[in-house]
What does this fold into?
Amino acid sequence: MPGRAFLQDFWFRLSIPVVFGTLFALLLWGFFSATYALLFMLLALLVVMVRHAWQLFKLLRWLHDPRIENIPEAGGIWDEVFSRLYKMVKRHNQTKLQLAAELQHIEQATAALPEGVAILNDANRIEWCNPLAQQHFDLDPKRDFMQDITYLVRQPEFIEYLQKSNFSEPLIMRPARHDDMVLSIKFIPYGENKRLLISRDITQLERIESMRRDFVANVSHELRTPLTVVNGYVENLQDMPDLSQDSARRALQLMAEQTRRMENLVADLLTLSHLENDLSPLLEETVDMDVLLNEILKDGLLLSGGVHSLRLESPGNAKLLGNREELRSAFGNLLSNAIRYTPKGGTIILRWAERAGQPVFAVQDSGIGISPQHIPRLTERFYRVDRSRSRETGGTGLGLAIVKYIAIRHHAKLEVLSEEGKGSTFALVFPGKRAST
Ligand code: ADP
It folds into this structure.
């Protein structure tokens, strides 16, 4: 409410022209006549009125397009009216700019959220959604604004979940147009019957979870088979205490084979878990390749038992920057595979060479080979082309998975060239900077 002083000032300024006009009219009356004075007074009031009417017209005209640049100029009391309006519009514009900046800020923050967010009103119509929600549900923010979400996402499980109103557990579903994606969906009620729809892409998590399930199932299966065999022999030995020495020895020998198989499996699992663990960094040293390759060749000759022709081809005097134990394990695994998958009389060559400035370790065999469709999957854990052959030869199905991890840790690439019935070459290609002389 304006104060008393303001009111006094208002009336004072409004009455100035009238007071001066009246004084002048009184003078006219004194010097001439009352008619002149009256005529003058009428004229003066008319001028005052026309001036006010003109300013009022300017105000109305401005109100049709109230921009700060075209605010009218005026004198007297109207000057104050327009200058106050000017300040008001300026303040309003500033507030508008501030609000727009804040809105943009919030929009940027919600766009950066790692989750899809949409606001639904009490009739499930979309009031707003962020870019990730648009991606998850194939929404168009303009076309689908205020559309019922159940017309756009029609999967029955989604509609049922929305109607259930119990959102303690998220809904896991695949969106209709991206069936390779898995979403975790939640509704959060807020305000007056409004709901926030939150969607999270859990495709990767689901994949890891399914890999973990497969892995546990595979390990259990791999351990169960030898355990069942050992159990069978133990029961036999218990049931037949007067078993002949020969039969008992044979049973114990088969049991030892199975326990060795389990031991190998557990050892490979431990190696894999150590390699996969981000917390075990690669401890590097300069490895003398001549010594290492000869050690591997010696192990190979022992494993082959003289049934293959094994040879090493190396220019000599080579060094490699890496972890000796891991390299030994990777090279050993490749050589043991070559021996196990090459029939008697076959040839196996261990080769150390340089290709386009990159050191390459290769094992070439004249064995059974692998048909092309299996090659991309060989490094998967427990993937075997021929299960029985792998088991017969003491394989765990983890050897190439171990080689792959060691290659990754050394920034090397595993290359497989193979032809069914003719033989295979497994090569580890190291980055040039690992070579040292
Ligand atoms: P495994 O313990 O079964 O040998 P690996 O991971 O070492 O497991 O190898 C995976 C599969 O790749 C093997 O089961 C085998 O079928 C195939 N494989 C590996 N190396 C060779 C090779 N040199 N020749 C033929 N097949 C091979």
Notes: The mean pLDDT is 91. The radius of gyration is 45 Å. The first strand starts at residue 116 and ends at 120.
